[in-house]
Amino acid sequence: MNRGSRFTLGLTILVIALIVSLIGWGAGLYIDWLWFGALKYRQVFITTMVSDIGLRVLAGLALFGLLFLNLMLTRNSVLQAVKAIKSFRPFHPEDDNVITINQTDWRESITSGRLTAAFMVISLIMGFFYSSTVAGDWPTVLKFFNQTPFNIQDPIFNRDVGFYIFSLPFYLFLYRLLISAILINAFFVALVYLVTDTARGGLAKIFRFASARNHLSALAALYFIVRAWGYRLNQYNLLNSSGGAVHGAGYTDIHATLLSYKILIVLSLLTAAVILANLFLKRARLTAYAIGGLILGSVLLTGVYPALIQKFVVVPNEFTREKPYITNNIKFSQMAYNLNEVERKSFPAGRTLTAGDIQENQNTIENIRLWDWRPLQQTYAQLQEMRLYYEFKNIDIDRYQIDGRYRQVMLAMREMNQEQLPDQAKTWINQRLKYTHGYGVAMSPVNEVSGEGMPHFFLKDIPPTASTDIKVTRPEIYYGESNDGYVIVNTKTEEFDYPEGDENAYTRYEGTGGVKIGNFFNRIMIALAMGDYKMLLTSDITAESQVLFNRNIKERVSKIAPFLSYDSDPYPVINTKGEIIWMWDAYTLSNMYPYAEPFDNRGNNYIRNAVKITINAYNGDVNFYIADSKDPVIQTYSKIFKGMFKPMDQMSADLREHIRYPEDMFLIQSRMYASYHMADPQVFYNREDKWTIPTEKVGDEEQVMEAYYTITVLLGEQEPEFVLIMPFNPQNKKNMVAWMAARSDEENYGKLIVYEFPKQELVYGPMQVEARIDQDTTISQQLALWNQSGSSVIRGNLLVIPVKDSLIYVEPIYLQARQSKMPELRRVVVAAGDRVVMEPTLDLALQRIYGENVSLPPSTGQAPQEETGQPEVPASLQELAGEAGRLYDEAQNKLKSGDWAGYGQSLDQLKAVLEKMQAQSQ
Questions:
Q1: CB count, 10 Å around CB of 758?
Q2: How far is the CA of 801 from the CAs of 608, 740, 869, in angstroms?
Q3: Cα separations in angstroms, 443 against 32, 339, 368, 468, 614
Q4: How far apart are CA 267 and CA 277, in angstroms?
Q5: One-character DSSP codes across 534-574
Q6: Helix (H, G, I), strand (E, B), or coil: what is residue 175?
């Protein structure tokens, strides 16, 4: 194969590959068009695509035009150089006895037309690559043109905060584009001059020739003019400096760095002027001095001078110098995280509850969570997954009005996991047409336990059966947290619905959540987009078939709104129609809020829970609701995507009852509030009252405590409500100093309250309570016995529960056989005041502490007394002594027979009798 044929073949392969890539891209774009249309978000798709593609095209064309213009300015110089080469070719006189080999210089083949074409190709290629540098920057541009003011002025430049959130990122984006474009142009222009030998002698001699000198000087001057603008923008960036005592501009930034930037602006403009003047003066050293002076000035002014000010002016008297800037940091950090609206209240310490207090707060007591999601997920899997191909992806917490009572529950969706199908069943038909969806819900109250230590189910089995007034009428789950990929419904193949004994029940999809096949063209496009040729070969697909894709709710929502940030935990809700609706929280973030302390390693220092999202698990419908109408960022997005975000009152009332304060945001606010509750700059600077999030013992490991939901009556309130709680410890201490509650019920949604304990009183922190549990000989012996008898003890989350104006601490104890993965709830530890007790049920533990007058409402899930072996305690001291002797003998017999669990149970009963005897003898 000759050289020309190889070139033709390579070019053909390249063209074919390009065509295939374009077809694939076009098919994906077309399918997205159909998908967004099916979800009624086509206008969002148009806005996103036009903005993204438009920005890329604009950036690419801008560089193409600028580079092509600069390259064309070199054309005459290049042609003159070629002409000079031809005129200086050596002359060889004809000599019959001499054979002359004529070597043609490659530059002699350059013509004006070829040069123009080459410059155009180079400019097009660079424009194409340059366009990719702005991918994903379209939100910055759109937010700039649709920005909403914050109506808060920064304390240094008196600019609205909106300038830093919306305008400054756009200006920095433009600055980055301009600087990179100038450098790219300078590189190619210099390269052209060098390659064509316009500057004979190489790079060092390039400025000896007027054309190269003038051209490159103009580009250099333009660079320094834009660089001056960059120094101007850097002034505003100081308000997010991290070099001082706190985040934001400090004393050195304002009194040294800011002044340095102003001087560098002038120096940059002077350097540009000197370079332009030198076009006429032709004194190269003057330009070199100007550029060198700017570089030296930059080092001295932004490095050396601020360091000297910091060391000799700030450090000797740091607090006095930094005090106003610390005040700014406190104020703006509180506003950035909405901590300025936290309500602070005092919470009395040391008060002991009575049996009457427990009786008056039954709504709180009966909603204390005894089930942790980790062991419960394993138990759910063993009891309710039913088949290998079903899976509970997550356990979620919510609250419902159940049979007239406000109850906290845990629930999980039974989703399809095609990876768990047997290998022989993993056929294309099964995975794409038959096993299309999960089925049903498992739900249990947070505090009810059967006699075997299992959860008591409100909803269970397939089809779902209910023991309460909650019903599920649409149990099919086509959209959830699973990652099974796309499926095709309404085909000639029956969809598997659920197992029914030895047979299977089948169904047909009745929703409209997919892309309809419609015609053969759509079928081809979908097959190309999915990369699945089998869609074209099967005869099961009809024109009425629908393709359901982007079924993972996180992927689905993020594809519609990639500009939002999302909570880590979407949760399901059963509405009054019996439908399963996923709810998900979305955030607006920024890393440009002036003076605010960042909360992550990306520098984000502003957050709002601006959006609540609902996704129908059957139909896939997605709705966005504005949860924080005061947030300027979501107001800006509402201007960009008109009609996308709905007001909160358009969410159905039954769903609004299930909105909850998001854990991720609450954790961020808790961490920030641990420092930013200190409003006094002196106290803040010395970290005198810094708090930390406590640790707890989960299993055998100490870990940072998780925030937890509970239903309680907050101090000063009358009605129980669903709240998210986080305790606080003083720094380097284990006692508790305060706790924060985020309110979730609709009328008080989003309000934060911090209850602070008197500083002179000791309130046990979580790890102190854990230590007291470990130090209780009866409890520690029982746990040790269980751990040695072929079982594993799992210590659940310790919950600090506010009851009236006091606290009780509750920790569940699970027992799991080493060969099993089904934890059983076997004990509940309760600590209150100086008492720590462990009993089979919560009500028995409360009775141990507060007396037998304490009783919980009847709960079918709580273990009957006879199953626990709790003795009927005799009234007289003599009878108590006899009962104690009997229980001791019983415990010894069980110990000899190897019945460790029974031995521990007898010891617990013996301890209760002995405490009764002690109480009667006093």
A1: 13
A2: 28, 12, 28
A3: 36, 35, 16, 11, 20
A4: 15
A5: HHHH-SS--TT-EEE---BHHHHHHHH-TTSEE-S--EEEE
A6: helix
Tokens 């003998």, located at residue = 889
Q: Is the pLDDT of residue 882 over 70?
A: no
Q: Which pLDDT tens digit goes with each residue over 596-634? A: 999 999 999 999 999 999 999 999 999 999 999 999 999
Q: Which residue has the tokens 């609701």?
A: 625
CA dist 226 → 177, 233, 588 (Å): 11, 11, 32
| Residue 324 DSSP one-character state | H
The encoded tokens of residue 646 equal 């709905």
Q: What are 552's strand-pairing partners?
A: 480
CB atoms inside a 10 Å sphere around CB 587: 24
What Rg, from alpha-carbon coordinates, does the chain have? 37
Tokens of 583: 């709810």
Q: What is the pLDDT of residue 285?
A: 81
CA–CA distance, 890 with 914 (Å, rounded to integer)? 15
Q: Rounded to two decimals, what is the model's pTM?
A: 0.87
Q: Which tokens in the block code for residue 572? A: 């399901």
Burial grade of 270 (CB within 10 A; 0-12, 13-18, 19 or more): middle
Closest of 28, 839, 867, 886 to residue 451, by C-alpha:
867
- Token pair in block for residue 540: 């099961």
CA dist 194 and 186 (Å) reads 12
Which residue, chain included where needed, has tokens 């695509």?
49
For strands 438-439 and 476-477, give the pairing.
Answer: antiparallel
329 has a pLDDT exceeding 80: yes
**At a CB cut-off of 8 Å and minimum separation 6, what does 557 contact?**
566, 584, 586, 613, 615, 622
Rounded distance between C-alpha atoms, residue 326 and residue 257, angstroms: 18
Q: What is the pLDDT of residues 254-278, one digit of tens each?
A: 999 999 999 999 999 999 999 999 8
How many C-beta atoms surround the C-beta of residue 123 within 10 A? 24
Tokens of 459: 């909803």
- Note whether 603 and 656 are within 8 A (CB): no
Phi, psi of 458 (to 5 degrees): -80, -35
Q: List the structure tokens of 799.
A: 């919950």
H or E, element range at 598? none
Tens digit of each residue's pLDDT (9 = 90 or more) over 578-587: 999 999 999 9
Distance separating the N- and C-terminal Cα atoms of the chain:
110
What is the SS3 assignment for 294? helix
DSSP H helices, 601-757, are 632-640, 653-656, 663-676, 681-686
CA distance 901 to 895: 9
* Nearest CA among 263, 469, 455, 458 for reference residue 371: 455
Instruction: Give residue for tokens 């036009």.
Output: 50
Instruction: Dump the DSSP string for 425-494.
Output: G--HHIIIIIS--EE-EEEEESS-B-TTSPBPPSEETTTTEESSS---SB-EESSBS-----EEESSSSP
Beta-carbon contacts of residue 920 (< 8 Å; ≥ 6 apart): 877, 880
Torsion sign across C-alpha atoms 839, 845, 849, 852: negative
Token reading at 581: 């609706």
Mean local confidence (pLDDT), 831-852: 88
Q: Pseudo-torsion of CA 398, 401, 405, 408, nearest 10°?
A: 0
- Whole-angstrom CA distances from 377 to 380, 417, 454, 616 are 5, 16, 12, 23
Identify whether the C-beta of residue 798 lies closer than 8 Å to the C-beta of residue 807: no
